[in-house]
């Protein structure tokens, strides 16, 4: 089975591929499928945005599409940046590094470092059939960035039970513990139940 990934994020593409390929599922980035636009994330929740992206790309390509909407929810910031994680601070024009440095500035002197990554995945088939799955990964925000793996906020996030950041722990450990790894694991069960893999 082949899914078009409704994203241009290389980090997400790598993780989807690593986790879904062993299940016999091929993931094709949307640009390779001729999609030259990004779907606007106008929803208020991760679930709404994941559906918006997957349904738009499935309708446009007439192929099964898969999307995730994900983000970092920080307790001391009342759950921000949440669904706005990609647009935090200066928005889409800022680099990942500018965004996590801005987060560290906002948390300067803050003793409550609890946070969680959240991921909502949605698959939409031509004809409109929808499958959903979600996953969370609790952890803490470090006081300084560490490591050069992963993407996004990985250098400043340590998953529960670890002192190192996701960017230091490497892909294998991240995929096992992460919000996306957990959501994809739940999706696998959903695909099997539906007879799609
Ligand atoms: P969106 O799902 O395209 O709205 O983007 C979510 C944003 O959340 C990304 O651009 C990253 O900044 C952040 N994010 C989501 N998942 C991860 C992750 O696994 N590691 C680090 N940052 C992430």
Would you write up a description of this structure?
This protein is of the alpha/beta class and 197 residues long. 32% of the residues lie in helices and 22% in strands. It contains 6 helices and 6 strands. It has helices at 10-20, 46-61, 96-106, 166-169, 171-177, 179-193, and strands spanning 2-5, 26-29, 65-74, 114-124, 130-141, 157-159. Strands 2-1-3-4-5-6 form a 6-stranded mixed β-sheet. Helix 1 packs across helix 6 (179-193) and helix 5 crosses helix 6. It is globular. The mean pLDDT is 95. The protein binds inosinic acid (IMP). Inosinic acid binds next to strand 3.
Structural class: alpha/beta
Report low-confidence residues grouped into runs of 5 or more: none
- Cα Rg: 16 Å
The best one-word shape is: globular
**Oligomeric form:** single chain
- Our estimate of the beta-strand percent is 15-25%
Question: What does the main sheet amount to?
Answer: 6 strands, mixed
Layout: helices, strands, pairs:
Layout: E1 2-5, H1 10-20, E2 26-29, H2 46-61, E3 65-74, H3 96-106, E4 114-124, E5 130-141, E6 157-159, H4 166-169, H5 171-177, H6 179-193
Parallel strand pairs: 1-2, 1-3
Antiparallel strand pairs: 3-4, 4-5, 5-6
Helix pairs in contact: 1-6, 5-6
The structure holds inosinic acid.
TL;DR?
It is built from 6 helices and 6 strands.
Record keyword descriptors for this entry.
197 residues; alpha/beta; 6 helices; 32% helix; binds inosinic acid; 6-stranded mixed beta sheet
